[in-house]
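Issue: ligand-bound run for zinc ion - logging full I/O for the record.

Environment: standard queue, default settings, no custom constraints.

Inputs:
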Amino acid sequence: MIYLYIKTCNHCGLKYLGKTIKDPFKYKGSGTYWKRHIKKYGYDVTTDIVFETKDKEELKNIGIYFSYLYNVIKSDEWANLKEEAGDGAGKGFIHSEETKLKQAEKAKGNKRGLGTKRSLETKEKISKKAIGNTNFLGKHHSEETKIKQTKVKSKTWKVTSPFGEEKIIINLKMFCEKNNLSYTHMATRKYGSKGWRAVNIELKQTKKRKTERKARSWKIISPSNEEFVIVNLEQYCKENNLHSGHIAGKYGYKGWKATKILD
Ligand SMILES: [Zn+2]
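Outputs:
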């Protein structure tokens, strides 16, 4: 079995999308930036399996699909330096220039200089190619695609077999077709179809953490012991070139500390 997983650093929320044939809960992930991060801050992470299959090609498609869905290369929230195409380093969709740029920018801790090396159009082409005929997305670029992608994000399903085995899938319709089950029954009825059940799940952890961190107010202590209250920690850190995850941690960041003010 090949697993596509998302690991989230429990301290700062940094995420990593990866694949493995090993036990994804034991396997720590192999990305250069990710490995550097867990080496520095410790391996205290949450692992979510987002897809599993025996089919390499399928995993590759879904991996690329997720890479673009979450914008893992460009996004500061992700440690990925390239798409998770499921075929290891040195192959697949590697854009060396961009990768290097990102690596350098990430190392500097300043992501503002990142240019748009690859046009949106190219990205969409690639993601469409990856998605192939799996019907995940609509036909148009722009907003519509975005809306659909967001919907798809919450279209993750936990499927339970008649024998109680659980599996996370992202295309219930395709799954039902393959297994000769009724999609309507699976999607809408508690008892599903032919002993199979499906529950719609969201990658809640990711979402929750994000809003939580944005909504709360924080007490900040500067290196010179000044105290003040701010609302958006993420933004504050960006403006002051601080690490929003680690400033809230036990040891703070560069002499700065942040504590959540409880409502
Ligand atoms: Zn971290």
